[in-house]
Amino acid sequence: MTNRHLTVAGRVALLIRAGLIAGLVITGLSYPFAALAGMGVKAGAEALESMPEQLTELPPAQTTYVYAGDGKTLLTMFYEEHRKHVALKDMSPYVIKAIVASEDSRFYEHHGVDAKGVARAFVANQKAGGVSQGASTLTMQYVRMALRDSARTPQEALEATEQTAARKLREMRLAIEVEQRLSKEEILERYLNAAYYGHRAYGIFAASQIFFSKAPRDLGLTEAALIAGLVKAPSAYDPATKNQKAALDRRNYVIDQMLKSNAITAEQATSAKKSKIKLKLSTPPNGCISVAPKHNDWGFFCDYFTSWWREQPAFGRTPLEREENLRRGGYRVVTSIDPKIQRYAMQHVLEKERKTSAIAHGQVVVQPGTGRVLSMAVNRTYSLDQEKNGRHSDWRQDDDVKGNYPNTVNPLLGGGDMAGYQAGSTFKIFTMLAALEEGLPLSTSFYAPQRFVSRYITAPGPATCGIYWCPKNSSKSMTGNQNMWTGFGKSVNTYFVQLEQRIGSEKAVRMAERLGLRWRTDIDRKLATKEHASGWGAFTLGVSDATPVEMANVFATLAAEGEFCEPLPVLSIRNPDGSNALYQDRLIAEPRCHQEIKANVARAATDAARCVTGYGSARGGCGGWGTSSMVYGTIGRPIAGKSGTTDGNKTAWFSGYTPQLAASAFVADPDNPEHLVGSGRSTMSKYTVAQTLRDALKGKPREDFKPPADKYVW
Residues in domain Penicillin-binding protein transpeptidase (predicted)? Predict the structure, then answer.
């Protein structure tokens, strides 16, 4: 029987009998193999047999790369240990030669344990009276790394690295097992991708990036030698420190070892040792806070993406586990953010409200039929540094309390745990959709007085009279008979309260839920319950909070003729091996859509929403004017939408859509909901949406809306 066919324990025992393993050096103490714990060769072999027979290797943590929608522009990265697997063929030959020469010159001769190396180390350490040489082969070092990276508990991690005889024995046993299972090239590739080089760089790819800003295949002799020298003691030989002498000495030692092993010529070695250390340091981005300054406005989208990721069961059982997966999973994510649309959106947001304003102005653009979020723009800088922020706009706060402008990481546009902003009359869309679904046509008419005494008991809303809720219109010119076209186009409060009473306010509330709204405040959650929703008359006037992402997606559903798609911040997600990430046999990045409302219901609502923008209805009269007639004049193509302001102009919204794109913009003070934005900002969101959609659709074909069937008209 050849040595190749012996068991792992048998192989080590054979080495012991042959006298090739003279001792084991651990923390300055030598342990003769045959005398371990007083054991003979037979007992030692039995002890080895009781140890794990095969190395359990879990995939090491890898960096997740997140790109913009073009698939090329890096948005950011997520990692705990910066690492990306690289094939051996994609590494510079100098890297391989340097690591073998410096760490294990007999790598290609031994079978996992270098008996001569152990004997040599034993003798050297005996003479030195301490540890002057180690005896770990590259394979044994790889085993240690694999045990460390596969540790499930702190105790397992300690056992993988602690300086004990038992650990060394286990490494030897498993190293021989690994050599029986893997080729030398496979071991080298795994080693180079697992080693730690300092500066949070795990693996040769990260080290090449961090120290030289280049790929592993492009490393020259001196660069490869310097990196190879780091694995022994990354901190001690750190070349990024002011004093590079230790790093230079270590690099030159590696070069000498390469010459000694005939990996390079004497001329190469002499020339290389004369050269100075030349670094090109880089700090890879990590997380949303590291989005490049050039694209800082993408930080809010990045934050929304991470909130979405934490909600996906495909990535773990809990939000914490999912976030850990993001930082360790090595995914390649192409997000849905469109750099061109984002640029237009930021331009039109900032030209109306600068970042230094306490008033926030933001906008979200969504693609109908997919739910993909194409843009998230707001007049803020995505940053944790609030030192130079303005004073908080709520006068009740202490003087030293900072406001969230110009710097913040609060999710002002959606995601996270922010409640959002009162959306005003944009909520009339839910009442109209519920009414159309109940069989009431667009021509449904009510007399709308200036003030209306509703059947609802006093509830949160613009006005009260006695025990009943008594809303009123913003203009006396709205008094008279109104239908859905004119009532929606002119935003007639007293018409919509009557329409809501006709169908029951609970149906409007449930419609909002069906189209993606979540109740984020205690009062909203309470009023949305079954026992309270039927009395929530003020709901139709938008007293509840909503986010721009939610509202943009509501109107995207209408643009898609009733097909609701969950808001989605990704185009594709690939695993480290290049395969598409799946969950229950479905692409995780695939749009999640279903027909939530009938196409003709959506078409009818759109026909009324055309009256708002000045585009005009296809099936009925708009009554001569709409609240946002400048929108069609600005965009110059078919568009529908709805504006919304709250009592006293605390917020001002506009949501608009074409068949290709939907957008929602708001103006509000996120720090102080009672801070009035002022009547001068009432048209701001309308122009922002119209101008952004105009620019985003430039050069795109003109598409029109389909009119509704007669059943939904008369």
Answer: 364-661
